[in-house]
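Service request form, structural biology core

Requester: graduate student, group of Dr. S.
Request type: structure prediction, single chain
Budget code: on file
Notes: please return the result as structure tokens.

Sequence provided:
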Amino acid sequence: MPIYHSILIIKPGAIGDLLQMEPVIRELTRQYPHARITMLVGSRVTAELFRHHPHVAETILFDRKGEHRSVAGLSRLWRRIRGGGYDLVLNFQRSNVKNWILVSAAFPCRVLIYHKSRKTVIHAVADHLKTLAPLGISSDDLGLEFFTSPQAELSAERLFRENDLTHKKVVALNPGASHPVNRWDPRQFAQLADRLAEESGINVMVIGGKEDLPLAEKIAAFSRSRLLLLTGKTTLSELGSILKRCDLLVSGDTGPMHLASAVGTRVVALFGAADPVRTGPVGEGDRVIQSATVACVPCRSRNCANPRYLECMEKIAVDEVYEAVTGFFEKRDGP
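Core staff response, request fulfilled:
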């Protein structure tokens, strides 16, 4: 079996997509402990996921809509990859022509291509790991990891101390998602926050990116409780450090859900159109809530065709989510 020294992984995608690549990186590192691994990603945000990763030597940005949109920009990136001396390339975005142009920069090298399972639905992490089979690598370890910076850890510690949250019960709410079909209604999040605070004495914070701020503000407007709004105020590394200190995250199918799993925080995941068999949380003790009374669930579509728009998310009851959250604390804390 050949030994590879310089490995390029091509995966432009969203935060959750990149976090789910972690087991691939882990298994490659186990097989080739001295190999230099480079990630080619599609945004500066996702590049931050690997800034402090002990097994990723370099992250290359493929800015398809900006710097590398032109032939000249793509040529510059091609030459950069050409100088990398890669002897193994894993292409997880095989349908994109420009990606194949970049793959050609590494020739001659071995190329492994990701093929999504079509006949059966398996978790995306397991599907990614199948790409390594030609290398003699197989693994059932779907666990995610995320490596934060020391500065982010200090910032999170200070945040908890200044808001009197240290050693207290804290639940984070993540209302945002790239696709509306994965979002629970802000009114329901607000009702959940109020019940957690008033009935169980649990502290509640709201997280997310800058694009999620309108949703967070709606939750705050609908809620009677004192909420700590962190939406749009943290880097990914800081958010990972904050989630690490939370007891639980309530979220739809989106990047922060996987980020929580990656730092070891339990998740109550709210699923509607998305299929949890494919993209659900992989952490031990995580809970998925999905309506059993909506016929089209899971439709696996990004656009709701139900005459009753987003019925699948609407029918996730606040009572059920509240019981899942408080049940976690009861189980953890015991009698």
